[in-house]
Amino acid sequence: MTDVAAAHTDLPDATAAGQALGAEIAATYGGEAPQAVILFASSRYDYPALLQAVFDTCHPGLLVGCSSAGEFTDDANSAGAACALALRSSTMQFAAGVGRGLRADRAGAARELVASFQGLRAPRYPHRAALLLTDALAGQTEDLLEHLTVLTGGTYRFFGGGAGDDARFQRTHVFCGHEAIPDAVVGLEILSSRPIGIGVGHGWEPASPGMRVTEAAGSQLYSLNAVPAAEVFEEHAEATGQVFDSQDPLPFFLHNVLGIVSEGQHKLRVPLGVGADESIACAADVPPGATAHIMRTSASSTVDAAARATRAALAQLQGHPAKAALFFDCAATRLRLGQGFGTELRAVEETLGPVSFAGCNTYGQIARADGQFSGFHNCTAVVCVLPD
What average pLDDT is seen over the chain? Predict the structure, then answer.
């Protein structure tokens, strides 16, 4: 049996906000301490004060989380706020760990994180997953996932996203215990006697012919079909009757992302800015030699994709009732949809039914699970459903 509590606050003071979250959780548990609390919080907060207040009021056994770019639960949705999901279960076991120094040594950070996992040493739980929250601004998140997959022998399913900072793209933090840590990845290991569902989906489709990524380095895209990247996007804008302003390209980019062909699908990359050399900075790595398309979507397609991802996660529970869920979607999706992002959340809520959930808008989304489109994504809905 699993007990869950979702809490949300938009109080501006960090201590007051932490107390409000902790008090709501404590009231749900009747004073009993939750095994784990997952916390998402705007960059407006003093994180040490926020974390301390949560600990003082609900006394969690473990606390993980990250800075964010929009926070929500099944009954609240806002930006510049904080929310949490608390868990207590007789069918699941939790452990938390952190890997530091991502920019300097991703392999070392992965080893440090995996050292905290209990399932590799005590494999009595048949279902293993881990919530991963990382500093995506450190880059190379796909590489980090590869290291984690190898270190765990491919026996874990991963989900989560990149920490945010209210769309400033300057400095993000992950939370582990009382610490708020930049340049790091935090993980919450979830070992379960019952299946865990993970669903992935986006509503984008190709709007251009396939092009070869002829030059790229990390997240910097230099050319497609040997043509400067910015020129390719400008030509696409002209062909489709859109406005492309290289001095202020984000309004165009939010509706025209790059889709990298992978596993027969498109892994999305959000362009962020144009360089003086006509290169384009993207929100995640672009592999040289890949085939790519400029993509298009609609608000209804995005909402439908989130509902599909939720249904896929529910189907993996193999008949067990759902009890709690975590939902992640891109900060760019929130910027593009505006108030319409609430429609996406309602679609998730209606698909889940009477299930508490919490989540945040992230800088990229993580999903690595059998039967799902795996890796590090942008503009993609990721849903994890936990069983009762």
Answer: 95
pLDDT of residue 349: 96
Among 329, 361, 338, 297, which Cα is nearest to 169's?
A: 361
For the chain, domain boundaries: 2-201+301-387, 205-296
Angstrom distance (rounded) from CA 235 to CA 143: 32
Query: Among all chains, which residue has been given the structure tokens 């040493």?
Result: 121
d(CA 388, CA 339): 32
Q: How far apart are CA 343 and CA 328, in angstroms?
A: 15
Spatial contact of 14 and 47, defined as CB atoms under 8 Å apart = yes
Instruction: Output the CA–CA distances (angstroms, integers) from residue 25 to 9, 53, 160, 174, in the order listed.
Output: 12, 12, 22, 21
pLDDT higher than 80, residue 252: yes
Sign of CA dihedral 213, 216, 219, 220: negative
Cβ-based neighbour number of residue 159 at 10 Å: 26
Residue 354: CB atoms within 10 A of its CB come to: 9
Average pLDDT over residues 241-249: 95
The span from the first CA to the last CA of the chain, in angstroms, equals 5
Distance CA 90, CA 93 (A): 8
> Identity (one letter) of the amino acid at 152?
T
CA pseudo-torsion sign 66, 71, 76, 79: positive
Percentage above 90 pLDDT, the chain: 94
Per-residue confidence (pLDDT) for residue 258, from 0 to 100: 97
Structure-token pair, residue 362: 């992230």
Integer-rounded Cα radius of gyration of the chain? 20
Quote the Cα angle for 168-172-174, to 5°: 150
> How far is Cα 365 from Cα 345, in angstroms, rounded to an integer?
16
Reply yes or no on whether the pLDDT at 263 is more than 90.
no
- Pairwise CA distance, residues 227 & 337, whole Å: 31
For 288-319, the pLDDT digits (tens) are 999 999 999 999 999 999 999 999 999 999 99
